[in-house]
User: Fold these one by one.
Assistant:
Number 1:
Amino acid sequence: MKINFVIPCLLGLEKLIADEMKDLGAENVISENGRVLFSGDEHLLARANICSRYAERIQILVGSFDALSFEDLFQGTKSLPWEEWIGAYDAFPVKGYSLNSALFSVSDCQSIIKKAVVERLKSKYGISWFEETGPIHQIQFSIMKNKVSLLIDTSGYGLHKRGYRLEANGAPIKETLAASLCNLTRLRPYHTLYDPMCGSGTLLIEGAMMVHNIAPGINRHFTAERWDVIPESVWTEERERAKSAIITDSNFVAYGSDIDERALQSAKQNAIRAGVDKYITFEKADIKDFKPKSEKGTVICNPPYGERLLDLKQAEDLYKLMGKVFPQQKGWAYNVICPSEDFEIFFGRKADKRRKLYNGMIKCQFYMYFK
């Protein structure tokens, strides 16, 4: 079965996700602003959900068309093959958004798309009423500059929900972004990873999972698993495939510290649930007392800052302190995600590389020091 897919992305991660999909076997991969398009079969649908570290969710692109009127929207929607995915008893709620388009009323677009899908399915199934008691097929629409894209979500809960983080500290980094930062630092199985402000341990856990090739979705379920159109064997085979790819032999070690005892206890439990606790050591410590436990190391951290937990002056003082406890030396790399454009000034030196990323809705820079 040939399927067209769309992945909505955090801005700045499009190439990372496109490369990941290619590695998973996707075809016709195209990277656009805020999303990645590709094609594959039902095995890739399951594989992408189970194995993607960086994607927010996997969506099926049912079709696209231009619409300047509600009649255009109705006819365009009705012409698409909804019956290929939605059964006679399945639920198919509709939600979406419209930007810079003639059709700007989201509620009106929502009801028209719903009506058009119903009319299409009526003609295919020969019934006049849909109970919608079966598995959910969430229809998502986006209308941008009069271009309509109609999708069906396959993931359910966002893919950042790995299942290991039951509770988090005050301003947790999203698991997908944490994994992306580990990728950007080129973390390897022979590295020693540090996070001296680790909070609930997300960066360390995602790093350990990445270097040991533990699929992030291996222990959770997805909405498409309940669909009749995808055989259960597909999901079973893809989970077994993911399990067989796990790396068990490595020299990877990670150290996390924080001043919050409660956050550390949460981090330890999260690491256990993720199956990587044997690689990570947690301890209570202030960053001012940061002491390396190895000759070489990779530091990745998401410090509290003015827009999250600290006021601006406290954040700037913290950046100065980081510059002192993270000295420039051979074999060490320091990586900090931060919204401040002046971070390098307070830190005390210019980054070897910086990359624009978004932490939630906050525009940030990822400052990378490795020389």
Number 2:
Amino acid sequence: MSDISTWLDKVIETLGKVPVAPASDTATETPPAEEDEAPLTGIAAEIQEAIDAGGINIAIYMIGDPDSNNDREFKRQAKKWAGNHGAFGMSGSSVKKDHAMPLSQDPGKLVTKLLDAMKASLGTTETIPVANVALFSHGGQRSMQINSNGAGGGEGWASAGSNVVKKFVAAVTPSLSSDAKIHLFACTAAKDRDPTKDADDPTRRDSFAEDLQEMTGAEVWGHENAAHTTGNSRLVQVSDEDGDSNAERYQIRDVLARKFLRHVDSSLSDAQMGYLDQQLDISEWIRNSLRFRGSGSSLRDRHQVFVEEISMMGYDTLFDLLIADSAPSAAAFRSMFPEHDQIDKLVEGAAAVHERFHRDMDEKERAIGAARSSPDFPTNPS
């Protein structure tokens, strides 16, 4: 028994000399809490909010002749557009919201400086998505007056093949969102140069708007005639719907005429719609419904505000607003344009167009029914 006791004493003595490692607390240790990033404030917060909503908007206008009221109109309308759509621009060396940029430099340089400054404000190198770019300038079928001569104005003309336009395309294209639009508030920039040729004929001569669409891949909107900068209802949407890198033109009167005919009878063939349009002047009725009617600058201003937003809404939304029994409300427009500064004018302008559209709508529907009984009405192919 004494031998066992002696042995146990030695074992206990030996164990007492072995250092015991402290229990690991890695499983229970709480890592230090990461510090929350400080919330964005000021212009950085506004930029991030625009990015989260789909991308930023940019407005650029030609300075022109400071003594010409016609040229000063571009600045007036660009400033309104910028305020209505929360556009960002450079004011000196700072980014400013609700701001339109004058062509004190070529548009490509203005866009590059703006995007670089916005990245610096956010402290990021990631691409800033661009949703809409609006150019306010004199235009023609093949060019726009956007070649800057500096802060004094007097911009020169630039065609799609010019370095000015190529550099603008290079600056803006990498940042364009998937559904980006370029709005050309300029005369005849989307006028058809080859009306006798099919939309996808590779030999057709392109307008400035078509060239710009093919260069950027964005949806481009422009006017097909010479008229007011923003209140021109002869709009054309230019896009590449079939992905063949050849832009197609969609005139507002033709698109809405087809939508109306499909609304009346979804079974109508292309030949039947063409017959009805020709016999009943459907597209001309659409065109007249969208044009300004009345006297007085206040009425013209309200119509202009509505027409200006067609390129932002697109043809589908426009037709839905027109075909509805009631004119669109302020709430409807506020949901589309939450930052718009002229909602009241927008509502009134839309109501005037809606009223003219509905004034003849029932008559057109009855005429379509009668025309279908005509002996020369095309038969629907089996």
